[in-house]
Amino acid sequence: MRKNDLCLSSEGAEVILATSSDEKHPPENMIDGNPETFWTTTGMFPQEFIICFHKHVRIERLIIQSYFVRTLKIEKSTSKEPVDFEPWIERDLVHTEGQLQNEEIMARDGHATYLRFIIISAFDHFASVHSVSAEGITVSSLS
Questions:
Q1: Using CA atoms, how far apart are residues 67 and 127, in angstroms rounded to an integer?
Q2: Which of 9, 56, 126, 141 has a CA that sits 20 to 30 A from residue 115's CA?
């Protein structure tokens, strides 16, 4: 079975919530497949965003490219609506001066319909997320 980047908008994924939005750097930029675009936070922490897959997926590996993110928590839900999130992964990222943080996470028990990413803290007043990739497979539709 072919593994896809389940987080791409071209695969049907959608950012359904983001706690901040800058019109020049909207949340959709994280999943558009373009390495030149990104989402930026606007001020205080925590900040969060939710990605909806519009299907049941099994994630095997996550790759998050970001800048200035210090602590990242990821929760998942297998519900049809964005509710009943359960803790899944929490990471302290390393500050990388002048280059993107490239955090690769091998996932265990990666069944989800939604992922909630919570940026608990950052190394600066602002942080950015350039891409979120989820390598895995579609398990079934939501119907």
A1: 6
A2: 126
Look at 122 and 143; give whichever has higher pLDDT.
122
What is the spatial distance between Cα 42 and Cα 109, in angstroms, rounded to a whole number?
A: 32
The type of residue at 122 is A
At residue 9, φ and ψ (nearest 5 deg) are -60, -30
What is the reported pTM?
0.95
> CA-CA-CA-CA torsion for 1, 77, 53, 61, nearest 10 degrees?
-50
Which residue shows structure tokens 């800048």?
Answer: 67
pLDDT over 70 at 2, yes or no? no
Question: Which tokens hold the place of 64?
Answer: 């998050």
Quote the CA–CA distance of 16 and 4 in Å, as a whole number: 20
**Other CB atoms within 10 A of residue 19 CB:** 17
Distance CA 126, CA 120 (A): 12
Architecture of domain 4-21+37-141: Sandwich (2.60)
Query: Chain centroid to CA 109: how far?
Result: 17
